[in-house]
Specification:
460 residues; mainly alpha; hpI Integrase, Chain A; 3-stranded antiparallel beta sheet; 16 helices; 43% helix
């Protein structure tokens, strides 16, 4: 019912950082008094963060401004206001279908509310530093309770064990402090059915789902969509990583099929001396796709910061499982480039492997649409929790690795995660497997023992 207050909105503007003239197109908050300059400066300092991170940070500040606008007369201290604001994120502002504040916020999931509070906390911390005024810290540090100290120690230990740069943690953490406003969380253990694409339907998806119209002279199967699906299902890639491939990123080395996924900005370009960012600028006048504006440019691709395993090239390799799929992929890759890839024309040149019918880079949205049509064509229901969305193929890869007996470390490396914990999402036993385990344990009880238990329960 409610939208963000009219006094503030988000725009994407070119922000100039300093006298060097370096620029970046970033989300900024615009109010009826103009751009929030401090936040624009903060966004420039965070220009290396993902677009999703930047958008979430901007949205958090918008929400805070909206809350202040509606409640500024009721709070004299900013800390009290921030406490009320954080509670409103968790609980919403509607009671009995009424909301005197006019916000009409629905309660947000704890994880997302935590994220918003974290963004505002970071910004207010930074703001207090540059203004040398601790009163600007909306979420101040205070003396932690004994229990909070223990939780802080536990959190530090967890961070140290999972951090990519754990060897840099030398000093003891400051655990005798805690935020005045602590975030909330729900204890969870995911035993929902695995969101993986059904293995028994994969061949049908590739052969019938992605079938072209009968009169198409380029062949009966859309090799572009097949190749992308192979990369996700048997290589464990995210869709955005598969779409980021350039035509030079697949090679045969020592009779092995090598697929390298490069960092979209810092990865080594085909000239073996430039970064991809500089190569795109110099030869094509393009920006890396992760630096496009997510909400307005259909060619935007996210980048989840997978673990880079080749430091010199700034890339990681795809490990096909089963291994022979790599040979099939290489054969189809050559066929695709010879027969089906639509080459860019005129001034619209680019290096991306997968193109649409106009020769432009293939978009995230267009593949998702094609994948959904293919799924429905083979009489499957389309849905995230059914495993039939594109990301279900990555889940299938993780489940297949686990079923094959791969160790957690091998699965972590194959899926390019920074921590073992990240891979557990893809290899968690399903609720069916858990029930099967319970049944197996039950079968070990003798009938006599089981009968005795039932008899005892009946007597009670």
């Amino acid at each position: 019912m409610n939208t963000l207050c009219e006094s503030s909105h988000r725009e994407y503007r070119t922000v100039i950082g300093d006298l060097t003239g370096r620029q970046a197109v970033l989300p900024v908050v615009v109010t009826d008094q103009g751009v929030l300059r401090e936040f624009a400066q903060y966004m420039y300092l965070k220009r290396g963060m993902s677009r999703t991170w930047q958008d979430d940070a901007t949205f958090a500040i918008q929400l805070l401004l909206e809350f202040i606008e509606a409640n500024q007369e009721f709070y004299e201290q900013p800390r009290a206001l921030f406490s009320a604001f954080s509670n409103a994120l968790y609980t919403g502002t509607i009671e009995r279908r009424r909301d005197p504040s006019g916000l009409y916020w629905q309660a947000r999931q704890p994880d997302y509310a935590n994220k918003l509070i974290g963004h505002i906390t970071q910004f207010s911390d930074w703001l207090s530093v540059i203004n040398e005024d601790s009163s600007l810290k909306l979420n101040e540090w205070r003396k932690a309770t004994r229990h909070e100290q223990r939780l802080n120690w536990a959190a530090y230990a967890h961070r140290r064990e999972n951090a990519f740069l754990s060897h840099l943690f030398r000093d003891a953490p400051q655990t005798d402090q805690s935020r005045a406003i602590r975030t909330k969380s729900l204890p969870t253990e995911n035993l929902a059915p695995a969101k993986s694409f059904p293995e028994e339907k994969l061949d049908l998806l590739l052969t019938e789902g992605f079938r072209r119209r009968a009169r198409d002279s380029r062949g009966p199967t859309d090799l572009r969509n097949v190749l992308i699906t192979l990369l996700m299902h048997f290589g464990g890639l995210r869709l955005s990583e598969a779409l980021s491939l350039w035509s030079d990123d697949v090679s045969i080395e020592n009779e092995e099929v090598i697929v390298r996924v490069y960092h979209p900005e810092y990865g080594l370009a085909p000239d073996r001396k430039s970064s991809r960012l500089n190569f795109l600028q110099k030869h094509f006048d393009l920006k890396p796709r992760n630096r496009l504006i997510k909400w307005t440019d259909p060619l935007f691709l996210g980048w989840k910061n997978p673990t880079i395993t080749d430091q010199s090239r700034k890339c990681f390799e795809v490990y096909f499982f089963p291994h022979y799929i790599g040979q099939i992929f290489a054969h189809l890759w050559l066929d695709y480039h010879r027969k089906q890839r639509v080459k860019p024309i005129g001034s619209a040149q680019h290096p991306y492997a997968f193109t649409n019918r106009n020769g432009q880079p293939y978009s995230h949205r267009m593949f998702r649409k094609a994948h959904r049509l293919a799924v429905e064509r083979i009489d499957l229901e389309y849905g995230k929790f059914l495993g039939t969305t594109p990301h279900g193929h990555r889940h299938a890869f993780g489940q297949r690795m686990r079923a094959g007996g791969a160790s957690p470390l091998i699965i972590k490396i194959a899926m390019h995660h920074m921590s073992l914990g990240s891979s557990q999402i893809y290899t968690q036993p399903t609720s069916k497997e858990f029930r099967d385990c319970i049944f197996e344990l039950e079968s070990r009880l003798s009938n006599k023992h089981a009968s005795a238990i039932v008899q005892q329960l009946n007597e009670e």
